[in-house]
């Protein structure tokens, strides 16, 4: 895989019986890129993401993530990525500090690394006064920002974010995207799914899935120009009507 490509997908397919959920998709994602993976519910984007993070076996095709093959090296992929699920991933009945320590251990960090990284994380998020408070008591926006920071704890090459800003207020959404920009600027590749079309504007490139296929892939600017649209929402609405 090219040094600048951290994800390479070629003809990746997933079927369930007679149903094809992901139909021969092909794309690359480059180091430090913010790559938006868009599609309506049922379009196949979550199924595709599950194959890329090593928790679902593809039916056919090829894919490499962080230099590892999705068919034969799924465990290596898991060690080299971060993942934040649509449903809040941390433990509500553990404190902020306990969550960081727990996940640091899962990621294989030493006690010294966990201590150093947790102190920095808590300081950057401004959680010094609540680090011994149960995560369940934090506002949703703070939970999401903490979850993203924990996904970065082991310095992964790629972070997969599944609808990371669902349910949070517009100000928190903007703050969350500032964290994404910072991580990307430091060389971490961000692979993000979202149903907020305005957030597609924040991505370097976006793909749009319709009925299991990638119908469009380019920069937001180029897609709006190609489809004579004023916004990414207009692009999405036009593509959603494209026959599969």
Structure summarized in a few sentences:
The protein has 244 residues and is an alpha/beta fold.
Give the SSE layout.
Elements: E1 5-16, E2 19-30, E3 34-39, H1 45-52, E4 60-65, E5 68-69, H2 74-79, E6 81-84, H3 96-106, H4 111-125, H5 140-151, E7 158-162, H6 170-185, E8 189-193, H7 197-200, E9 205-210, E10 213-218, H8 220-226, H9 232-239
Parallel strand pairs: 3-8, 3-9, 6-7, 7-8
Antiparallel strand pairs: 1-2, 1-4, 4-5, 9-10
Helix pairs in contact: 3-4, 5-6
Give an overview of the whole structure.
- This protein is an alpha/beta fold and 244 residues long.
- It has a single domain (32-55, 75-239), classed as Rossmann fold, CATH 3.40.50.300.
- The protein is built from 9 helices and 10 strands.
- The strands form 2 sheets. It has a 6-stranded mixed beta sheet, sandwiched between helices.
- A hairpin with a 2-residue loop joins β1 (5-16) and β2 (19-30).
- α3 (96-106) crosses α4 (111-125).
- The radius of gyration is 18 Å and the shape is globular.
- The model has no long low-confidence stretch (mean pLDDT 91).
């Amino acid at each position: 895989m090219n040094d600048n490509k951290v994800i390479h997908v070629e003809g990746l397919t997933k079927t369930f019986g007679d149903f094809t959920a992901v139909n021969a998709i092909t794309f690359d994602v480059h180091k430090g890129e913010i790559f938006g993976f868009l599609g309506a519910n049922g379009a196949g984007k979550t199924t595709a993401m599950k194959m890329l993070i090593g928790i679902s076996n593809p039916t056919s095709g090829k894919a490499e993530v962080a230099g590892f093959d999705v068919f034969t090296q799924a465990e290596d992929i898991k060690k080299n990525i971060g993942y934040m699920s649509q449903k809040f991933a941390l433990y509500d009945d553990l404190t902020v500090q306990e969550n960081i320590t727990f996940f640091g251990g899962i990621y294989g960090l030493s006690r010294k690394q966990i201590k150093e990284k947790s102190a920095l994380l808590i300081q950057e998020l401004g959680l010094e006064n609540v680090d011994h408070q149960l995560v369940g008591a934090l506002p949703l926006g703070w939970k999401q920002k903490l979850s993203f920071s924990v996904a970065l704890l082991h310095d992964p090459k790629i972070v997969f974010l599944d609808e990371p800003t669902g349910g949070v207020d517009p100000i928190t959404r903007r703050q969350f995207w500032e964290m994404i920009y910072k991580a990307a600027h430091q060389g971490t590749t961000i692979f993000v799914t979202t149903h907020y079309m305005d957030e597609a504007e924040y991505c370097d490139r976006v793909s749009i899935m319709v009925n299991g296929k990638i119908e469009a892939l380019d920069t937001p600017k180029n897609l709006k120009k190609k489809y004579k649209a004023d916004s990414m929402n207009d692009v999405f609405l036009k593509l959603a009507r494209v026959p599969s």
